[in-house]
Design goal:
The complex is a heterodimer of chains A (403) and B (175). With 403 residues, chain A is α/β, with parallel strands linked by helices. Chain A has 2 domains: 187 residues, no CATH class; 167 residues, no CATH class. Chain A is built from 14 helices and 15 strands. In chain A, a hairpin with a 7-residue loop joins strand 6 and strand 7. In chain A, helix 4 crosses helix 10. The mean pLDDT of chain A is 94. By secondary structure, chain B is α/β, with parallel strands linked by helices. Chain B has one domain. A 6-stranded mixed beta sheet of chain B has the order 1-2-3-4-5-7, sandwiched between helices. In chain B, a hairpin with a 2-residue loop joins strand 2 and strand 3. The longest helix of chain B is centred in the middle third of the chain and has 17 residues. Chain B starts with a helix and ends with a helix. The model of chain B has no long low-confidence stretch (mean pLDDT 91). The chains are: A alpha/beta (403), B alpha/beta (175). Strand 2 of chain A pairs antiparallel with strand 6 of chain B, so a sheet runs across the interface.
C-alpha cells in the first residue's frame, strides 16, 4: 500500500498520483499531513498506528509531498519533495530548507522544485513598475549539493518551467507545474525512488547523476564544480563567492568565547575544541521562524559540516533584538521558547534509527508526552540546532544532545 | 455540513473548468500563490507582500470577442463585507492595469490565448458554502456537500466533484 502524504492540497496530490508510477499501483491513498505542534491533532488525524512513522521526517516542518509504502505491517518512506512558486531569492528558498534537512539526514531521497526564473513587478521610489527577474543564488544550490554530499543521499533541486519568468502550470491541477523539461526529470526521480523502495545509489542512478551534473554546470563555485571542492578550500573562498550572504560569518572559537564572555562550564561538549564558530545573525522584532529557521539548517550543513558529514565548526545563533524573557513568558499553552534538555538519543521522533530501536509503542507514547518536536517551530529548531543562542538579555546554552 | 474553504475553492475551480473557463491562477488556502498584484499605494522602495492581492481563482472566458476575466474569492460562508472588499480591489486604476499586465504574461506562458485589444470585462464571483444565494453586485458560486466525505483520506480514483453540488448566480456563470 502506498500513501501520498500532502500538505493540505489534495489537488496537488492527485497530480502526483496521475503522473507518476503510483498510478499503476494497486492500493494508493492521498492523506493530509497533520499539524505536529499539538499532539492531540495527531490522535485525531492519524488513523493507523503506522502513520506515526512519518514523524521523524516532518519533525521540523511539513513538506509538500511524502510517499510512504506500507507492506506486511512495515513502513518505509520512499521519497519526499518540496515545491516553491515564490521568487527564488535566498530567503524564499532557504526558509523551506528545514524540511529538506530532516528528510535528507534520514537518507530518504528528497527534492525541491523551484522557479529557475520568476518575474515580479516592482518599482523604485519614483519610477514606474517594471518586471524584475529573480534567479536562484548559487549559495542555495550549493547548500543542496553539500547536503547530498554529507548525507550520501540525493538532495536535489529541479526547476519549475517558465516562459519569460512566468511559471507554466499544469492545465488540470494548477498548483502543480506543467510537465515538461525538468519536471520530466523530477517524475523519473520519483518513479525510481518508488521502484527502488527509497534506496537510490548516488553513483548508480542516471537521473540523479544527470541532475547533479546539470546543477554543477549551471551553478559553479568560482569556475569549478562545487562538490569536488574540499571543505578547507570552501571555507577560505566562500566570502568571495557569496557576496550577498551577510547573515553568516566565521570567527575563531577562542576569541568568540572571550568576546562574549561565554561560560565554559555551560558550553556543549566539544565546543571549545572546535577551532572555528559559525555565527548566524540577524535583526528581528519577533523570534520569527521564516526565513531564519530553514536558513539556519542550511548554514549548519554548508558551514559546520566537513566533507564527510562530521560537525567541525560550532553554530551560534544571534537574533538581535530578541530577549529570552519575552519569548519564554508563559502564555496559554507552551511559551514560544523555553529551556529544555531532551536527550535526543532517546527520542523516537528524532530519527528513524531511534524509532527502530525503541519501537512503535514507545514512539506513540512519547509524542503524547512532552516531546520537543510537538512544540513550537522555534523550540524544535532554534532550541536544538545551535550550540549557543545569544539573546539580548541572556546567553542560552544548548543542553540537548542530538546535532 | 460545514465545508472547508479548500473544498469550496477546489469545487469552484472544477466547476469553472467544466463550464469552459480557462484557469489562469488557482490559489487554494495554504498555497503559495501563482502571483500577487502589487499595491501601488505602498512606498516604491517597499519589497514586502503586505497589501498585495492574490485572488483564489482567476479564470478567462471569451464571449463574442469580449475577454471576461473572472476573479473568485472563497469563504466558508457568504458575507456582504467580503463582497465589498472584493469589489473594491481595483479602486485604484493603476492596480487594475498591473493585474492585466500580469495576466498577459501568465496567459502567454500557459498558452491561454486572448486578444488584449478586444473589450475586457472584469467580473467578480463569491464562492461560498451554506445556502445558495444571489447578489446584486457579484456572481455567486454556492457549494454544498452531498454526502459525508472527508478530504483527509482520499481514494485517488474517486470523483471528488460528485461529492458536491454547485449552484451559481450571475449571467456570466449561468450561460
Amino acid at each position: 500500500m502506498y500513501i501520498i502524504w500532502h500538505d493540505n492540497d489534495y489537488d496537488f496530490a492527485l497530480w502526483v498520483y496521475e503522473n507518476t508510477i503510483l498510478k499503476t499501483k494497486k492500493e494508493v491513498t492521498l492523506r493530509q499531513i497533520p499539524k505536529t505542534n499539538d499532539s492531540s491533532l495527531l490522535s485525531s488525524d492519524f488513523k493507523d498506528r503506522l502513520d506515526y512513522f512519518i514523524l521523524p521526517y516532518i519533525k521540523f516542518a511539513t513538506p509538500d509531498l511524502l510517499i510512504q509504502n506500507i507492506e506486511d505491517g512495515k513502513s518505509k518512506i520512499l521519497v519526499a519533495s518540496e515545491f516553491m512558486t515564490h521568487t527564488p531569492q535566498h530567503d524564499h528558498v532557504m526558509q523551506r530548507f528545514e524540511r529538506i534537512f530532516c528528510i535528507s539526514r534520514e537518507k530518504v531521497p528528497v527534492a525541491c522544485v523551484m522557479p529557475e526564473c520568476k518575474v515580479k513587478l516592482e518599482r523604485g521610489k519614483k519610477t514606474a513598475y517594471r518586471a524584475v527577474a529573480y534567479k536562484p543564488n548559487p549559495f542555495v544550490i550549493h547548500t543542496y549539493l553539500k547536503t547530498t554530499k554529507i548525507n550520501s543521499n540525493p538532495t536535489l533541486v529541479f526547476f519549475w518551467p517558465h516562459k519569460d519568468g512566468y511559471l507554466k502550470l499544469d492545465g488540470k491541477h494548477q498548483t502543480a507545474p506543467k510537465i515538461e523539461g525538468q519536471i520530466n526529470s523530477w517524475i523519473r526521480f520519483i518513479n525510481e525512488c518508488v521502484e527502488n523502495n527509497g534506496k537510490i545509489n548516488l553513483m548508480g542512478s542516471d537521473v540523479v547523476k544527470k541532475q547533479i551534473g546539470f546543477l554543477e554546470d549551471k551553478y559553479p563555485f568560482q569556475e569549478n564544480h562545487f562538490t569536488p571542492i574540499t571543505f578547507e578550500v570552501f571555507i577560505k573562498e566562500f566570502m568571495l563567492v557569496y557576496k550577498s550572504l551577510i547573515r553568516a560569518k566565521i570567527e575563531n572559537t577562542t576569541s568568540f568565547i572571550k568576546r562574549l564572555g561565554l561560560d565554559s562550564k555551560q558550553l556543549p561538549p566539544l565546543f571549545e575544541q572546535r577551532e572555528s564558530t559559525v555565527i548566524f545573525e540577524y535583526r528581528s522584532k519577533k523570534l520569527r521562524t521564516d526565513p531564519y529557521a530553514g536558513f539556519l539548517c542550511g548554514i549548519f550543513n554548508l558551514f559546520c559540516m566537513n566533507d564527510v558529514g562530521k560537525k567541525v565548526y560550532n553554530l551560534v545563533h544571534i537574533p538581535h533584538g530578541i530577549s529570552y524573557s519575552s519569548i519564554s513568558a508563559k502564555k496559554k499553552g507552551n511559551p514560544t521558547f523555553q529551556n529544555m534538555s531532551e536527550d535526543f538519543t532517546k527520542c523516537p521522533v528524532h530519527s528513524q534509527m531511534n524509532t527502530d530501536l525503541l519501537g512503535l509503542d514507545e514512539l506513540i507514547k512519547h509524542v503524547h508526552e512532552k516531546c520537543t518536536y510537538t512544540l513550537s517551530k522555534q523550540q524544535r529548531i532554534f532550541g536544538t540546532l545551535p550550540d549557543v543562542t545569544v539573546f539580548s538579555d541572556i546567553i542560552w546554552y544548548n543542553k540537548n544532545n542530538g546535532y | 455540513m460545514d465545508i472547508r474553504e479548500y473544498n469550496i475553492t477546489y469545487i469552484a475551480k472544477e466547476f469553472l473548468t467544466r463550464s469552459g473557463w480557462k484557469i489562469i491562477a488557482y490559489n487554494p488556502p495554504g498555497s503559495q500563490g501563482t502571483f500577487t498584484i502589487p499595491n501601488p499605494a505602498k512606498d516604491g522602495a517597499y519589497r514586502g507582500q503586505t497589501g498585495s492581492l492574490s485572488p483564489d481563482i482567476v479564470a478567462l472566458k471569451i464571449v463574442n470577442e469580449t475577454n471576461i476575466f473572472l476573479i473568485v474569492e472563497s469563504k466558508p460562508t457568504y458575507s456582504v463585507s467580503d463582497v465589498t472588499k472584493m469589489t473594491s480591489m481595483f479602486n485604484q486604476k493603476e492596480r487594475k492595469e498591473l493585474f492585466l499586465r500580469i495576466l498577459q504574461g501568465h496567459c502567454e506562458a500557459n498558452d491561454i490565448s486572448y486578444n488584449p485589444k478586444n473589450k475586457t470585462i472584469i467580473e467578480f464571483a463569491k464562492a461560498h458554502g451554506g445556502n445558495s444565494r444571489t447578489d446584486s453586485i457579484v456572481s455567486t458560486i454556492s457549494v454544498s456537500q452531498n454526502e459525508e466525505w472527508s478530504s483527509k483520506i482520499i481514494d485517488p480514483t474517486q470523483d471528488i466533484y460528485s461529492k458536491f453540488s454547485v449552484n451559481v448566480s450571475g449571467n456570466f456563470l449561468k450561460n
